[in-house]
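The protein record quoted for completeness.
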Amino acid sequence: MVGKINRRAALTLGGAALLGAAAGVGAATPASAASAWVRLPLVTANIGRKNLAARGPAIRDVRAADDTRPLVGWQEISEGDSGEPALIEQHFGSAYRNTFLRHDTAFRVPISVPAPWVVVDTKPTFVHGGIAGVSPPRWITEVVVRHETIPGLQFAVINTHYIAGAYNGAQNPDLRDEWNLHKQTHRDRVIAQHQQGRLVFWTADTNNPGYDKATGQDAERKAFGSGIDRIDWLPPGNGSVQVELLNTKSVAMDVDGHDARVAIFRVRTA
């Protein structure tokens, strides 16, 4: 027969048991299991303005940049010509959501997001107005996406196109206020997404061959260390999503001097 204990002893024992149970729960709860790795090809593609007949094949070849559907940040879409939205929709098909492609103001820098990624948020940010004969208005576009079957696997993609001629070409100092404002705004948007605990990728035509990083942070990584077309990423500070760069390559577009640049990543929840 179990011996009797008095009320004070029972309360003392009960309190200790509760503390022990609480400690046990904390110690015994395993960390969430990491998800499987998911392949993620990411492309930055300035379609160009010169050999317009080559745009259709170029868009087709960007879509075929990898066996896994690539996520694409575009630049110079519908900039002084027409037909590119229809070509993108034709070659990319129903498995894509082409965000900003027909946006009223930010249409020059759309982002094509393939299944299995689901767009959960979008944001356009105005940078500066146009300059006659020099530059259209400049915008930054961004999307937040999650995997359709792995809800915790989320990240942001930011896409943009800086003014030309400030730090390349003519090296015109009168354009550097606009370029520098763009760099600051770009930095602010990357940091804003990162502060939400997200992995952040960005794609851009920076129009600066000496471009370093959007944020200047040591944690920001570069897929390409030279040229004006860049892909960078900033891992989440909380470690919620892991990312690895597997490979890089280029896709010839033959429209003007730009080739599409491709970075093959894999991502998973931690």
